[in-house]
Write a structure and sequence with these properties.
- The complex is a heterodimer of chains A (666) and B (151).
- Chain A has 666 residues and is of the alpha/beta class.
- Chain A has five domains: 147 residues, Rossmann fold; 175 residues, FAD/NAD(P)-binding domain (3-Layer(bba) Sandwich); 76 residues, no CATH class; 166 residues, FAD/NAD(P)-binding domain, CATH 3.50.50; 59 residues, Alpha-Beta Plaits.
- Helices cover 27% and strands 24% of the residues of chain A.
- Chain A has 16 helices and 34 strands.
- In chain A, strand 21, helix 10 and strand 22 form a beta-alpha-beta unit.
- In chain A, helix 3 packs across helix 4, helix 6 runs antiparallel to helix 16 and helix 9 packs parallel to helix 10.
- By secondary structure, chain B is α/β, with parallel strands linked by helices.
- Chain B has a single domain, classed as Rossmann fold, CATH 3.40.50.
- Helices cover 44% and strands 15% of the residues of chain B.
- Chain B has a four-stranded parallel sheet with strand order 2-1-3-4, sandwiched between helices.
- Chain B is globular, with a radius of gyration of 16 Å.
- The two termini of chain B are 12 Å apart.
- The interface between A and B is large, with 55 and 54 residues.
- The complex binds FE2/S2 (inorganic) cluster (FES).
- FE2/S2 (inorganic) cluster binds next to helix 4 of chain B.
């Protein structure tokens, strides 16, 4: 028996003496219900020996009050009635531990999120709920048993899903701290959306010039296993010990033999729309996404390929890299931590019929404009009108397309980048075409970042870009020249205006990836109402998820610009490093246990366990019974829910504890 | 046991308010209820929340016990199908409760007393709506007296 074991068995045998601490939480609780009354009430309940109130129990002073009671031997169970345990349970567990009390002899009553905040106008009801929640917590506390914490090792490898600017930055931070990284990207190249951008606001530095060096750094780094054109298909295990299966999709080209010469491209007879150029150019069925792609190897798009065999000819592919029978490959790796950086989709405005996208050739999206402005884009940085490929003399931008829209089909949130990219694109065009007329139709200009306001001010002042506040009522096409005629109301001047422009750019917003559901199911993480991944706490744990060991970063968590994405990447990387540097983590010892004497060996639990953690064993005194492998068990309770003989129990949420809460309705 | 309580309630001349016990899974619905709080969405003060690891943890016994012990209604809420933190706990639970509900109905317990629902961590609003609905149903059914010992 170790020292902790001895201590635990002593604590388990003591009669409960419960200390109840009711927190005012400023006015959050105290302003709605009478905290002193709650304390008095708690003191009337059996086994409660101490009852106290304080403004903020989570503060140092508050925690000290609890510690002093423990140290003085007044109590051996702690109940804190305050906020959600998802917020402060860890805090108070540490408090108990520091005062020498087993940290699992602690229970929290949620009287803020579940009472005073949801019954603010019904103070009587709120008081009743708070009372009951305190009573239930005390009932459970009476049944609590001391437990030994479990420690598990953390594998020093990190899986990063998505190799845009966020995933790449996180990867480099991790390897510079000495950890191994599996960087999985589903397209054929890394770089993400940032590779499509021309210049970046507000500094106007060229996107490629800052991105491509990072891309080659990634490909050179020996500690990064770069898996492009690959997808994560299965994740099992838990923090520190995930087992991840990755599918490498077939390139139909031997990636080792291919030397990236590109001779195969010209003879390929098949042309299809180029995804990277957003349909503004074509590519062949055998292709590289863009010239600077990393890795710079070719891929055959088998959906379009007709297997004519030209590229496989010896005179075309000298190294003989073409392989039409390529098969997907699966690899399984052990992973300690996971960072999700899957990015976003551009909002598709074709649903907004009133703006004519997809109907009129001279209506394009912001990202398409970006490609037109790009020096390695389809028109080498000289934007043209799609209708006749001439320079436009006038351009109008419409802001908030698909964002800040509370009607059907739009997103309610602000996409946070459109104001600035439209301003940037307008300035870029103005620099080369000072005579052009440029309008930006907006609701509000949101220039919140560092240097953004200055950037916007100077666009209006020095570049003569016309900012028009107001929504566009209607647009139509001039049938003679494909110009777009815009009718809008200038809400500042309170005047209707009508302008005819040659190019109309929809500043489309950002959306969660269309198939982000596959990630949430794969990793058991959650999404917030806007469809982006949910952080564990909006302020204090912005890159953590509710699943331990899994972090989120970049736009997959919510719209943000490049600096913010990189900042989050660094946050996620350092959180992952923190876990791996320690090498082990404590996990809650909440597992299933079998009462051998009750088990009838029916095997229902084995069928219900999603983790294969239960198997039959032959017990000398009880015959064939179920037995739990705690390395695999997660303590969900699916087994015990179906046990006819009540032979399986879940530590931490035991039948006795739940039962005591149920029966404590007075 | 329950009768005096009912009496005092009536003598106060207030509308009878049901008490409902809500078992919420830690990963979705409990977090959703937290979000309802953070967003200050108001819902009736009839539920008492018990945190459980997963809706799959709840067995028939807990539900029956809640009813025999005088709770007027029971809510079990977990993650949406396919989203359970433990892969399939909610599906196991769903099957279990479908049977239980029929069995209880057979015994003469109104099906509306037991409400099984899904609400994710992001659905504070949905959680509140579901609680409102469940409360309404139970309120219509009136106090749970079927289990009172009358002899
Ligand atoms: S964890 Fe929510 S239902 Fe299983």
């Amino acid at each position: 028996m170790t020292e902790t074991d001895i201590k635990i068995s002593i604590m388990a045998n003591e009669k409960p003496r419960i200390g109840v601490y009711v927190c005012h939480c400023g006015v959050n609780i105290g302003g709605v219900v009478s905290v002193p009354d709650l304390v008095e009430y708690a003191k009337t309940l059996p086994d409660v020996t101490v009852g106290r109130e304080y403004k903020f129990f989570c503060s140092d002073v508050g925690q000290k009050m609890i510690k002093e009671d423990i140290e003085a031997g007044l109590i051996n169970r702690v109940v804190v009635a305050a906020c959600s345990p998802r917020m402060h349970e860890p805090t108070f567990r540490i408090t108990c531990k520091e005062a020498g009390l087993n940290q699992f002899l602690f229970e929290m009553a949620n009287i803020r999120e579940h009472s005073t905040w949801v019954h603010m106008k019904d103070t009587e009801g709120a008081y009743e709920v708070a009372k009951d929640h305190i009573r239930l917590a005390i009932a459970k506390a009476r049944e609590l048993a001391p437990l030994a914490v479990q420690k598990v090792n953390v594998e020093p490898t990190c899986l990063i899903i998505g190799a845009g600017i966020t995933g790449m930055n996180a990867a480099l931070d991790l390897t510079s701290a000495g950890y191994k990284v599996y960087l999985v990207e589903r397209s054929a190249t890394i770089g993400g959306h940032m590779a499509q951008l021309d210049k970046t606001f507000p500094t106007m530095d060229c996107s490629s010039c800052i991105l491509t060096p990072k891309m080659s750094e990634i490909s050179r780094d020996k500690n990064i296993e770069l898996l492009t054109y690959s997808e994560v298909v299965e994740v099992t295990g838990y923090i520190g010990n995930f087992e991840v299966t990755i599918k490498k999709k077939p390139h139909y080209i031997d990636q080792v033999k291919c030397n990236g010469c590109g001779i195969c491209v010209d003879p390929c007879p098949i042309s299809v729309g180029n995804e990277f150029e957003l349909g503004l150019a074509t590519r062949k069925a055998i292709y590289i996404p863009f010239p600077q792609a990393v890795p710079s190897q070719y891929t055959i798009d088998m959906d379009s390929c007709v297997e004519c065999g030209i590229c496989a000819r010896e005179d075309v592919c000298e190294p003989g890299a073409i392989n039409y029978d390529d098969k997907p490959e699966f690899i399984t790796v052990k992973i300690g931590t996971i960072i999700v950086a899957t990015g976003y989709d551009e909002y598709d405005p074709s649903g907004l019929k009133q703006y004519g996208y997809g109907k009129y050739p001279n209506v394009i999206t912001g990202l398409q404009m970006e490609r037109l402005l790009s020096s390695f884009g389809p028109v080498v940085g000289k934007p043209v009108k799609p209708s006749d490929l001439k320079d436009p003399h006038s351009i109008a931008f419409l802001q908030c397309v698909g964002s800040r829209n509370f009607r059907e089909g739009g997103n309610k949130y602000c996409s946070r980048v459109c104001c600035m990219y439209a301003t940037k694109q307008a300035r870029q065009y103005k620099e080369k075409h000072p005579e052009a007329d440029i309008y930006i139709f907006y609701m509000d200009i949101r220039a919140f970042g560092k240097g953004y306001e200055e950037f916007y001010e100077s666009a209006a002042r020095d570049y003569g870009i016309n900012y028009v506040r107001g929504r566009i009522a209607e647009i139509r096409e001039n049938p003679l020249n494909h110009n777009i005629i815009i009718r809008a109301e200038d809400t500042l001047l309170q005047q209707p205006i009508e302008v005819e422009v040659e190019l109309f750019v929809l500043s489309t917003g950002i959306e969660p990836k269309a198939d982000s559901d596959s990630i949430t199911t794969l990793l058991r993480i959650q999404k917030s109402a806007d469809g982006f991944f949910l952080e564990a706490h909006p302020k204090l744990r912005p890159v953590d998820t509710l699943t331990e060991g899994i972090f989120i970063a970049g736009v997959s968590q919510g719209p943000k610009d490049i600096p913010d994405s990189v900042a989050q990447a660094k946050g996620a990387a350092s959180s992952a490093i923190g876990l791996m540097a320690k090498g082990e983590v404590e996990i809650e010892p909440f597992f299933a246990v079998v009462h051998s004497d009750r088990c009838s060996g029916c095997g229902m639990c084995i069928q219900n366990c999603a983790y294969g953690a239960i198997e039959f064993v032959d017990d000398r005194s009880f015959g064939t019974i179920a037995s739990i492998n705690i390395a695999l068990c997660k303590g969900c309770g699916a087994c015990s829910g179906n046990c006819r003989s009540s032979a399986i129990d879940i530590i931490g949420f035991s039948s006795e504890q739940l039962h005591s809460m149920i029966t404590k309705r007075v | 046991m329950t009768e005096p309580i009912v009496e005092t309630k009536q003598s106060e001349n207030k509308e009878w308010e049901p008490k409902i016990i809500a078992f919420l899974c830690n990963w979705c619905s409990y977090a959703g209820a937290d979000l309802a709080g953070v967003s200050r969405i108001q819902y009736p003060s009839n539920i008492r929340i018990v945190r459980v690891p997963c809706s799959g943890r709840i067995n028939a016994y807990f539900i029956i016990k809640s009813l025999t012990d005088g709770w007027d209604g029971v809510i079990v809420s977990g993650c949406h199908p396919g989203d359970c933190h433990y892969i399939s706990g909610n599906l196991v639970a769903r099957r279990r409760f479908a049977i239980l509900k029929e069995l209880l109905e057979f015994f003469g317990i109104e099906a509306g007393r037991i409400n099984f629902m899904w609400a994710s961590a992001a659905e504070g609003e949905r959680f509140a709506v579901l609680v409102r609905k469940a409360t309404e149903i139970v309120k219509k059914l009136g106090p749970n007296t079927k289990f009172d010992k009358k002899w």
